[in-house]
Specification:
Blueprint lengths: L1 H6 L29 E2 L9 E2 L4 E9 L5 H15 L2 E7 L5 E8 L3 H11 L7 E3 L5 E4 L9 H14 L5 E9 L1 H4 L3 H20 L4 E6 L10 E7 L3 H10 L3 H6 E4 L3 E9 L15
Helix pairs in contact: 2-3, 6-7
């Protein structure tokens, strides 16, 4: 009888639900949780890492009682001393507007480094426009041949690239119906979208930064997209072209607001500039 019990699932400790308190039913066994980013298998070895880059866009209006020149000088000094990588944009749609893109592997830096830098008395004329605040994290698709480059390096190189001075940043949310699609159909939809993005990038017209923002966006968006390039028109053009894809036309439930800016200063840290390129601004 003992042998029969040993062979049954109910006697196997690894298959039984965890023990419950006396008088309470046993609870279901909890699923295992894996928060690692995963890339393609290279030479038979799976790529995994538990690092990612967090990027945040803050948009400000400089009040009329603050002179733009001194505020800009004070802002760049504060960012340079903060120890966090950043890019400053002039807001095309607000003559007294500024956008600050910052990034770090440790989101604590947004509170311990960036927050004190922006709280200086010399920057009191800055008024936050919270409707444009965007915060996201890099993520993997599972097909990256160089996972560390795509998760940690490429986004920094993209925003710091000399000459790619125009930028469009916006959040978006997909409808719940997309998540219910079969995996194969989702893959086809995403490949159509990605193919267009690669075409613009290959032609040096538009380069993207893709961030996930599930649970860390005020308006419950799921992704933050950054488009950067030499000129503004191709950035608008790629958004227009994407409207014709199945993902955007059928499964995007919300996009925007859109922030449009041009780089006026860069504050890269060591390793933030791609090899064989140089950044002179800042």
């Amino acid at each position: 009888m003992l042998a029969a019990m040993a062979d049954s699932d109910s006697f196997n400790p690894s298959l039984r639900p965890p023990a419950a308190e006396p008088g309470r039913p046993r609870e279901m066994q909890l699923p295992s949780i894996d928060v690692f980013e995963k890339g393609a298998t290279v030479d038979g070895v799976p790529q995994t890492m538990n690092q990612r880059l967090f990027m945040q866009l803050l948009v400000f209006h400089v009040r009329e009682d603050g002179a733009l020149g001194p505020v800009m000088k004070a802002l760049n000094a504060a960012l340079a001393e903060s120890g966090i990588g950043s890019v400053v944009y002039e807001d095309v749609n607000d003559p007294r507007g500024l956008g600050i893109l910052s990034y770090t592997e440790d989101p604590t830096d947004f509170v311990t480094r960036l927050r004190p830098a922006l709280a200086r008395e010399s920057l009191a004329a800055l008024t936050l426009r919270p409707e444009f605040t965007m915060l996201g994290r890099t993520y993997s698709s599972g097909y990256e041949q160089d996972l560390a480059h795509w998760i940690l390096n490429r986004p920094r190189y993209t925003v710091q690239h000399e000459g790619w001075d125009w930028a469009v940043w916006y959040p978006l949310r997909r409808s719940g119906a997309f998540e219910l699609l079969p995996g194969r159909e989702k893959g086809e939809i995403l490949r159509e979208h990605a193919g267009i993005g690669r075409a613009y990038g290959g032609a040096d017209l538009a380069h993207d930064v893709r961030l996930a923002c599930h649970g860390i966006d005020t308006n419950d968006n799921e992704f933050v997209i950054g488009l950067v390039g030499k000129t503004l028109h191709p950035l608008s053009h790629v958004v227009q072209t994407m409207r014709g894809t199945k993902q955007t036309s059928t499964y995007i439930s919300q996009m925007g607001p859109f922030f449009v800016g041009r780089v006026c200063a860069r504050h890269p840290l060591a390793g933030d500039v791609e090899p064989n390129t140089a950044t002179t601004e800042g």
